[in-house]
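Researcher: Checking consistency across runs. Here is Wax synthase domain-containing protein again:
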Amino acid sequence: MEPESEIIRFIQTWLIVYASLTYCFFTGKLVSPGKLRLLFILPVVVLFVLLPLRLTSIHFSGTTGFFISWMASFKLLLFALDKGPLASDPSISLACFCAAASLPIKITPKQNIVEESAPPSLKPAMWYAVRAASMAVVAKLFAFRDQLHPTAMKFLKCFHIYLLLEFLLEVVRAAARAGLGIELEPQFNDPHRTASLREFWGRRWNLMVTGILRPAVYEPVMSRSSGLLGRTNGQRFAVMVTFGVSAVMHELIDYYLNRMHPTGKITAFFLLQGACVVAETALRRRLNGKWRVPRKVSASLTIWFVLSTASWLFVPELYRGTVEARMFEEYAAVGEFIKSVTSGTIFRSFHGSASIHYFFKQIISFQLPILNIQ
């Protein structure tokens, strides 16, 4: 992969994305919600599913696939029916429409943001330094994967995915707020504090996905199935369908990453989680509060179950083929670029602190030698 040509394709891809979203924006102004608007928008949804295939970079294709093929496509389908985040404000500007469609953000008026040197809702510079250091430590541990137990490596990969998502989305959040005065929706809500699988998947983990799947899949399926199956069974069926749709989209993201045909293990993981959520909810209703597990115990059991099943069915699929080697090659390229930036005064002035500047340089100098993992 030539880095320059990949960057050009990445820029071209996102230019196509924003041109398509501009078309959808004006379609919304001219065409009433319903089947006709859906007919006009469906070609864009198909295009968004195909666009990440133009990219070969792990991070470019994975990020574009998640933001565009999944999030933007579902938002546009809801928009066609006058639902979801894109339909909530008829006076929304083109810039905010494109940002809200293509990024995991919610619109916050600029004038409502308190102008301070560091807005309270944004992370301090040290947060980024700590996360960068954590990723450097994870990378260092990857270098010793032959000495680590296979199960430990699987859990390490789970932690790596969490760190990468959290860091990436926080960077996007800061850029969105600085540029347009819009707020990134939270991706995580202290998942380690969860007390149940239902709470973990519904209110702790992947909140952007939950916020889209609920109105796009769960609510319409429950509404239609409740009349045939009854409310309780309708809810159970809707939960399983929602986890099934999530499984399909995760299989698609996995294909963008490794370009290998799915084995069905990712689908099995999400269907297992859905079935366990249904069983857990039924058990809670049956007990009706008569017997409660201490929250710390239930949190530990929930996290253990999610991690163990993910390390068995989900994570190994994401690291198939040459994904791991390509990923660290990209880290090394980014690290070299950042190292060249930190050698000048721009990085120092950006952080406004010699100590943070020094801290970042130490992280990078620690990380670079161990990123060329074959």
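Researcher: Does this match what you'd expect to see?
Model: One thing to look at in this run: Residues 150-180 form the longest helix (31 residues).
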